[in-house]
């Protein structure tokens, strides 16, 4: 998606440790005009799927998922990061290791909001090592629901998350894939360039 790549080049900041900061337009301050185009593009890429629910994870996936959901006319469910899980049978849960915070979280989704009838589109801002997505996939599986696809805004193609997901045969669409970045020069190389 050219608009997104241009924006990453213009306003993204490459940090040490393979972190790309996009907080001026995507995951802290949010450019809603850009998010609208992102939502429209996800709809175009998953036009043939009959989606009943969009699933994401708090916090930074929520805004993107909500705008995208307007193009699909379906509800958004976000997995909540829980300090401790109360295993009382009311929630699906999974463990996720955070790439940015190097912490392990339990994430939960209430059983009331995901069931075996659901055809789910998973949306998130970044794909790095794939832990967040694997956790969300586990939750969809626990619900007996079907993952119809995964939409990612920025995939870091030099980390192995994308490969792990595609190997499972899941339809994964990333709107920008970064194959290399250099913190010193501040440069980003996109796949296909
Ligand atoms: P994964 O679980 O795939 O390793 O990482 C995905 C999560 O880590 C995303 O939801 C995102 O919040 C965060 N993340 C991973 N890499 C980056 C990055 O380079 N920049 C930012 N801003 N977040 C990242």
């Amino acid at each position: 998606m050219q608009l997104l790549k241009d924006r990453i080049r213009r306003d993204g900041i490459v940090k040490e440790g393979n972190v790309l900061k996009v907080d001026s337009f995507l995951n802290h301050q949010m450019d809603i005009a850009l998010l609208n185009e992102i939502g429209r593009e996800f709809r175009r890429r998953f036009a043939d799927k009959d989606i009943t629910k969009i699933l994401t994870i708090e916090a930074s996936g929520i805004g993107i998922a909500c705008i995208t959901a307007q193009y699909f006319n379906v509800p958004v469910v976000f997995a909540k990061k829980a300090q401790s899980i109360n295993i009382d049978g009311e929630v699906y849960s999974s463990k996720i290791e955070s790439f940015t915070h190097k912490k392990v979280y339990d994430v939960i989704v209430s059983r009331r909001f995901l069931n075996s009838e659901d055809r789910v589109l998973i949306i998130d801002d970044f794909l790095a090592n794939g832990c967040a997505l694997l956790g969300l996939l586990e939750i969809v599986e626990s619900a007996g629901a079907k993952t119809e696809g995964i939409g990612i805004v920025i995939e870091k193609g030099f980390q192995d998350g994308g490969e792990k997901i595609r190997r499972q045969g899941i339809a994964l669409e990333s709107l920008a894939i970064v194959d290399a970045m250099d913190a010193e020069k501040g440069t980003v190389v996109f796949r296909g360039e």
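Residues 178 and 190 are 4 Å apart (CA to CA). The mean pLDDT is 95.
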